[in-house]
Amino acid sequence: MGTPEGAPSGSAEVLPTAGELERAIGSVAGIVDAEVRRSEAGRDRLRMSLAPGADPETVAWAVAATLRERFG
User: Fold this and answer.
1) What is the distance between the alpha carbons of residues 18 and 54, in angstroms, rounded to a whole number?
2) Scanning 30, 42, 48, 70, which has its CA 20 to 30 A from the CA of 59?
3) pTM over 0.85, yes/no
4) In 3D, which of 72, 68, 69, 66 has the Cα closest to residue 24?
5) Buried b (16+ CB within 10 A) or exposed e, 38-59
6) CB 39 within 8 A of CB 20
7) What distance in Å separates the CA atoms of residue 18 and residue 37, rounded to the nearest whole number?
8) Phi/psi class of residue 68: alpha, beta or left (left: φ > 0; alpha: ψ in -120 to 50)?
9) Reduced to 3 states, what is the DSSP secondary structure of residue 49?
């Protein structure tokens, strides 16, 4: 996801917590609920509930843009 601002370029990558991801995704218009589940293998599973009438493609693009903006 990128090196946090101000971190040395050689430092290990810092990943956002599940809660940070859920809050970011939940702030997107058209999202009613977001849940991130982390496995021990390091894979994240995201479940989102869309608001009635929300366009899934538009919401997906907005989620992607929000995650890029907040976490790189």
Assistant:
1) 24
2) 42
3) no
4) 66
5) eeeeeeeeeebeeeeebeeeeb
6) no
7) 7
8) alpha
9) strand
3-state SS class at 60: helix
Q: Which two tokens stand for residue 45?
A: 């599973």
H helix or E strand, kind and range, residue 34:
strand 31-38
Three-state secondary-structure class, residue 30: coil
How far apart (Å, rounded) are the C-alpha atoms in residues 29 and 7?
Answer: 31
- 45 vs 3, higher pLDDT: 45
pLDDT at 40: 84
Q: Which residues contact 3 (CB under 8 A, 6 or more apart)?
A: 9, 11, 13, 14, 72
Residue with tokens 């843009």: 65
